[in-house]
Amino acid sequence: MPELMNEPKEKVIVGDEIFVPLLTEEQIQKRVAELGEEITKDYEGSVPVFIGVLNGSFLFMSDLIKCVEIDCEIDFFKLSSYGDAKLSSGKVKMLKELNCDVNGRDIIIVEDIVDSGLSIKYIEELFEENNPKSIKVVSLLVKPESLKYKIKIDYIGFNIASQFVIGYGLDYAQKYRNLRSIYVLRKETE
Ligand code: IMP
Ligand code: MG
Description:
This protein is of the alpha/beta class.
C-alpha cells in the first residue's frame, strides 16, 4: 500500500466527541465486491446506469463499479438534506441535476447510507417521471430502525444501528470522507 495512504485509527476525535471503528477497510471492500458480483449477475444483458448521490456515495460508487463486470454507465447528482448537522432537517433540496437521459434505462441509485429513507423516496419519485425501464437502489449502509418512509432497498451492504457514522465517503460537517474505514460516534455510556 502506498505510504501516503491514511492508516486505520483507534479513534477519531471531533471536538469533545469520539468516534470508534465500526467497519474496517477489509470488511467494506469484501462486501462491496459481493454486491458487485450480485449486480453483475442480475443485470446480465443490460447496460445499467449507476446514479450516485453526491457527495457521500463517491467512494462506494468508485469501488462498486470496479467490481461490476458488465458494461455500465455512471452519473451523479446532488441533494442536500442535512446541512452541517448530525440530524436530518427532514427537507430535501436538489443542488446538482442529472445529466443523462434515464428514459428506458435500467438505473441503479447508489447511496452511501439510508437513514429516514426520505432522500431515496424523493429520488425514486423524481426518476419515475422520466420513465426509466427499472429503478433499483444499492446502499452501503442502512439504519433499519431509523426508516420512516416505505421504500425498498434492493442491495444492502450492512445494516447498522441508528448511530452517526463517518468515513469512506460519509462526513461530519463535510470532513472525514477520506477515512478508509467507517467509524461510529461512541455512546455516552461507553
Ligand atoms: P435520509 O434521507 O434520512 O435517508 O438520509 C440520507 C442521507 O443523510 C445520506 O445520504 C447521508 O448523506 C446522510 N446521513 C444519514 N446518516 C448519516 C450518518 O450517520 N453519517 C453521515 N451522513 C449521514
Ligand atoms: Mg448521501
